[in-house]
Amino acid sequence: MAKTHTSEITLKVELDENRVPEELSWSAEDGGIKNEKAKAMLLSVWDSQNQESLKIDLWTKDMPVDEMKVFFHQTLVSLSDTFFKATQDEKMTATMKDFCDYFAEKLELKK
After folding, report:
1. pLDDT of residue 1
2. DSSP letters of 44-82?
3. Average pLDDT, the chain
4. pTM higher than 0.90, yes or no?
5. Distance between alpha carbon 105 and the CA centroid of its chain, in Å?
6. Residues of 93-110 as b/e, b for ≥16 C-beta within 10 angstroms?
7. Edge-to-edge strands of the sheet including 21-28?
8. How many Cβ atoms from other residues are within 10 Å of residue 72's Cβ?
9. How far apart, in whole angstroms, are the C-alpha atoms of residue 97 and residue 100?
10. Residue 111: is its pLDDT beyond 70?
11. Confidence bin at 39 (pLDDT 50/70/90)
12. What is the DSSP letter of 103?
């Protein structure tokens, strides 16, 4: 039987006295990442038993709104790519990409 490998991704959230995130960092040693700073994060996990997604959405209080808009746009584009890899559904992927273009246009984001 093949030997298995466990990989760990760690998230660290430093909170202020009101429990609002001041600093976010993450590590993924298998990927060569150690205590990398971040201003925002979105994490989704699938709960198969309850057939629902669970999520953690955090951003630091100094995350600029203009960067948040770019972050969301890039996340939506990435989700479109991931959706295609997972489903091979070309038609829905194209629809999702169209929405991403619309989103960027409405927010006047430059590519």
Report:
1. 75
2. EEEETTTTEEEEEEEE-TT--HHHHHHHHHHHHHHHHHH
3. 95
4. no
5. 21
6. beebbeebeeebeeeeee
7. 9-15, 21-28, 33-38
8. 16
9. 5
10. no
11. very high
12. H
Both tokens of 37, joined, read 């700073």
Termini Cα distance of the chain: 48
Structure tokens at 100: 């991403």
CA distance readout (Å), 50 to 43, 45, 47:
18, 12, 6
Tokens 């989700």, residue? 79
- Cα separation of 41 and 98, whole Å? 24
Length of the chain in terms of residues written: 111
Q: Which two tokens stand for residue 9?
A: 């991704």
pLDDT digits (tens, 9 = 90+) for 15-34: 999 999 999 999 999 999 99
